Structures are given as C-alpha cells and as structure tokens.
Amino acid sequence: MSKKYKIAWTDEIIALMGVIPDTEIAKMIGYNRNTVMRKRNSLGIKSPYWVGWTKENESKLGMMLDKYLADQLQCTIPTVQRKRKKMNISPFKR
C-alpha cells in the first residue's frame, strides 16, 4: 500500500499558479504536473496558457509581435505562438 503525502501548498507556490506553467511548479516542489494542475483548478486559477480567444483577439495575431500580444492578453508568448501557428498566420514582420 502506497503512502499518501500531503503537499504543503505555501502562499508562495500558490502565488505562482497561473503565472508560470504547471510543469515548472511541479519541478520546484517535486510532484508531477497533474498534481499542480488539479490544485490550480481547485482554486479556480486559470492556466497561464488560457486565453479567451475572441474574434477580436484572433484578428490581432500576426499584426504585432507575439510578445506584445501576449502582454495585452496577459498570457504567455508560447500561447500566442501556438494559436497563430494553428491558424496558419505568419509572425509579424516589421
């Protein structure tokens, strides 16, 4: 029978949820990503990759640097890059 260990969810770790990827938090505390994801979801904290992609937000893809759009949408740069690539939109060119 395996032992179950209670994770000490510190205020510092919880403050990182939704800011950095679950995988990074998992590495910090020595647990797997799913454990962190379940805790984050139970607290009602959205993933740093979550974006409510509206038509307006989608229309901005490729119209500015991914970094600037990520800042506007308060998400990560890879989130914007994935969406842009999924929609076959080229990166912004100056």
Overall form: elongated
What percentage of amino acids are in beta strands? under 5%
What value does the Rg take, in angstroms?
Answer: 16 Å
How many separate helices?
A: 6
Biggest β-sheet: count, sense, barrel?
Answer: none
- How much is the average pLDDT? 89
Question: In terms of per-residue confidence, which ranges show pLDDT below 50 for 5 or more consecutive residues?
Answer: none
Order of helices and strands: HHHHHH
Q: What does this 3D model show about the protein?
A:
The protein has 94 residues and is mainly alpha-helical. Among the domains are: 11-42; 55-86. 50% of the residues lie in helices and 0% in strands. The protein is built from 6 helices and no strands. It has helices spanning 11-16, 22-29, 33-42, 55-59, 66-73, 77-86. The longest helix has 10 residues, at 33-42. The model has no long low-confidence stretch (mean pLDDT 89).
A few lines on this structure:
With 94 residues, the chain is mainly α. The chain has helices at residues 11-16, 22-29, 33-42, 55-59, 66-73, 77-86.
